[in-house]
Amino acid sequence: MPDLLDAIEIETAPSPTAAVVWMHGLGADGHDFEPIVPELRLPARLPVRFVFPHAPLRPVTINQGHVMRAWYDIRALAGARREDEAGVRQSARQIEALVERERQHGIAPGRIVLAGFSQGGAMALHVGLRYAERLAGIMALSCYLPLADVLATEAAPANRDVPIFWAHGVHDPMIPLAMAELGRRQVAGLGYPIEWHQYAIPHSVSPEEIADVARWLGRVLGA
User: Fold this and answer.
1) pTM (2 decimals)?
2) Gap between the Cα atoms of 138 and 151, Å rounded
3) Is 149 annotated as catalytic?
4) According to the model, what pLDDT value does residue 76 have?
5) 3-state DSSP assignment of residue 149
6) In this structure, what are the phi and psi dihedrals at residue 96, rounded to the nearest 5 degrees?
7) Annotated catalytic residue: which of 32, 73, 84, 172?
8) What number is the average pLDDT over the span 165-187?
């Protein structure tokens, strides 16, 4: 098993019965979405452990090779191979190890949501659609579909009907809306149920989006 990533953990109530593993975006860290937990206002009857891992430190090509927290290298701003496949797959193994740790804590995969923003959202899609056991859901915020050309052959049968919350900002200058829509069409074309949202925001999240996320989490985790 790969080394476990360092992570911030927040429990909304004692003895969690569900978990959300939430990956941050390029150059951020696990603290980035920590403040969102109280904003979700999840009910006390739904105790959830939020796990916010820190991505590994690595040089990022599009940022002049500067070392920063990144789930994988980004080699170009566009193109089918803009992302570093080896990095994606290495991070996927590390994220799967976090899911396994939650299982060891007594939380079954069917009570675990994989979530992420930007590069972290790409990882949530990559891992969740390939995970061998049924998850509670996948949350993909302001992101695109990585390694899209091999998804059809690598997708896990267990998660063919996993609920997907996919959201994007209409005015996103980092990851254009069209890039997210391209991935959404491909995933939907394979038969996955997607709850799609778009907001009049840039590469960020909004109060409206947080409220929609809270409703969706409550639904897939059975609040």
Assistant:
1) 0.96
2) 15
3) no
4) 76
5) helix
6) -60, -35
7) 172
8) 97
Domains and CATH numbers, the chain: 7-220 (3.40.50.1820)
Active site residue 118: yes
201 contact partners, CB below 8 Å, separation of at least 6: 169, 170, 171, 172, 209
Residue 47 CB coordination number (10 Å): 15
Closest by CA to 102, choosing from 117, 114, 90, 91, is 114
Distance of CA 154 to the CA centre of its chain: 18
Active-site hit among 118, 126, 142, 168: 118
Q: Residue 1: what pLDDT?
A: 57
Name the catalytic one among 54, 197, 203, 206: 203
CA–CA separation, 180 and 192 (whole Å): 15
**Which residue stretches of 105-206 are H helix?**
119-130, 151-154, 177-189
Q: How far is CA 178 from CA 54, 159, 203, in A?
A: 28, 25, 14
Residues 6+ away with beta carbon under 8 Å from 49? 9, 10, 11, 12, 16, 18, 19, 20, 102, 105, 107
Is 29 designated active site?
no
